[in-house]
Amino acid sequence: MASIQANGITLEYESLGDPAHPAVLLVMGLGMQMIAWPDPLCERLVRDGFRVVRFDNRDCGLSQKFDEHGKPKMGRAVLRALLGLPVRSPYGLEDMARDTVGLLDALQIPAAHVVGASMGGMIGQLVAALYPERVLSLTSIMSTPGARHLRQPSTRVRRELLRRPQDPSDKEAVIAHYEHLFAVIGSPGYPTPPDELRARMRRSVERGYHPVGVMRQLVAVLANGDRSELLARIQCPTLVIHGKADPLVPYEGGVDTAYKIRDARLALLDGFGHDFPPQLFERFAGMIADHARSASPPSAPPQDAATA
Q: Structural domain of residue 279, as residue ranges?
């Protein structure tokens, strides 16, 4: 892993595989670090002939923090969003989309297959709509256009998302907090073994725990609102993957995403919630790789064959 300047800020990233191979850029969701992209999924994509790039979004992990903006007033932001009123945010998802394109610039990648999960899917939608020349294909996983008419998470799930650990200064309490959260929003059809879930949460907390950054990211999501009109501008081949059992971003968000992007393909998975269960690593990697290959332009034929 390494840090790099992109869009005027410092981003932590990792590049896996041959730099000469087609790039798959992985964009993670709210408060989640690059390591939330499962290593086996990344390794499978590398074996399939792709260069895999994953990174920490701003205000998360080892990337640049924006603590000068302070702690947002979450209650006010959530209420204004529910009422359809403008939400003020220290930065927006558009800035995070520019970060993403800036990372491609810094790594001298002309265009990539963009894969986004949850908030990362929202960022990917913006990149595909606003910077179409930089996106070979889009895969939007467990995400949404943000339309207000769509079904929202239950009060219980929303409360769990906003709940804080019993003792934020105690690492073990923080790890237990995230174990509980992912037990609530995870995949009922593919439960992650408790030991593996605990190991993932420990790795994440020990690498970079920054809850106020998560709050600022959430306000950016609320401020972005409805992207439906922008989705209509997306022209690249698009695959939408969503779980029918997703309690945080109900599957109607995936259906609406696919409906609003021209010729998008929709894959709804039974038992899949709002996580990356190990039972589905290979399936996800295969779907992403197949979609990227089908979206790639065919290689030019040899000169003698072309002139025959």
A: 2-297
